[in-house]
Amino acid sequence: MLSAQERAHVAQVWHLIAGHEAHFGAELLLRLFTVYPSTKTYFPHLGTCQDQEHLLSHGQRILAAVGVAVQHLDNLCAALSPLADLHGQVLRVDPSNFPLLIQCFHVVLASHLQDEFTVEMQAARDKFLTGVAVVLTEKYR
Questions:
Q1: What family does the entry list (predicted)?
Q2: How many domains does the chain have?
Q3: 0.85 exceeded by the pTM?
């Protein structure tokens, strides 16, 4: 799926955001809900303030799952299988939301990392997150 260079870029981006997962995740969700309001239907309990406890908590969970994926690049299917079951069979999240989440994640990364978030990093990150989204939607079939 990813070349050695792409893997290095994915790991590098993860290293840059490590320790700030809750805040990056909360901002990601806020951006998603603002730009794509229909995605908020899955989160009626979440507020609209970035510092709200539930938003930070769910943002942390999202980025923790991304962290698991980063650590299991060779076997995303096995690593994300429980999450795929949850989203596909229990929550029934519309799979069209995953690309929207990816777009918002890139914007959040670019706004915070600025010059550190190179075009090559974005391309690798996009390929990686698209792979994660594919795994998460496999259980929908």
A1: Belongs to the globin family.
A2: 1
A3: yes
